[in-house]
Design a protein that fits this description.
α2 (37-58) crosses α7 and α5 packs antiparallel against α6. By secondary structure, this protein is mostly helical. It contains eight helices and two strands, in the order αββααααααα. The chain has helices at 3-13, 37-58, 60-70, 79-95, 102-126, 145-163, 170-191, 193-210; strands spanning 15-18, 21-24.
Length: 211
Amino acid sequence: MSASIRRGLGAVAVGVHDGGVVRPVCASKGVHTLLPVSSFTDAVIATVLLRSAAAKAVAPGVASEAVNEAIGGRSVFSPVFIRAVSAVETFTAVALLVPALRWAASAMVAVLGLCFAALGTAGSIRGSKQPCGCFGTDSDRPLGRVNTATGAFFVAAGIAHALGSSHLDTYVLTSTVLLVTILSSGWVIFSQRRTGWVVVKNFFRRWESAS
């Protein structure tokens, strides 16, 4: 390997430790070359929370019935309570992107994760059948293993965030916001793909008729 190639690889291989995340940078210019891992985890968490919050705000009765079924059929959690949870999820998703609120957001992510995991476990044990509508009214999945796994991920991420630094530079913040936008848009498009396909087919039919 020539000396020039070795010098080039050495320049790219240098990393910086920023907010608990090691990011490779160009040694001579300090330019970020890879997206930080924290941007991906924050974006996934924020997207899931926003989607979940929207579903609860639009149709709180669906989640209310599913949760009450999972805890034994008792009418404990009303639609009003579910809407309050929706507000908490929205706040947590936004707070992840605010440096001053990041520690509190990390704690809330862990708490919400514990709740998700507990309800998912309860649903699995009781064999829940009622769709939870956790990620939209089009979802027919009851409380179960998916909720437990999601909750476990949230708990791990929340603890990791709380133990790490709350520093957010412009690069990390911009990357996270962009990823949230992409993931949220993709999720909406995918969940409404059947309706969208019908609209597209009707458009081309009318266009062919007009021509």
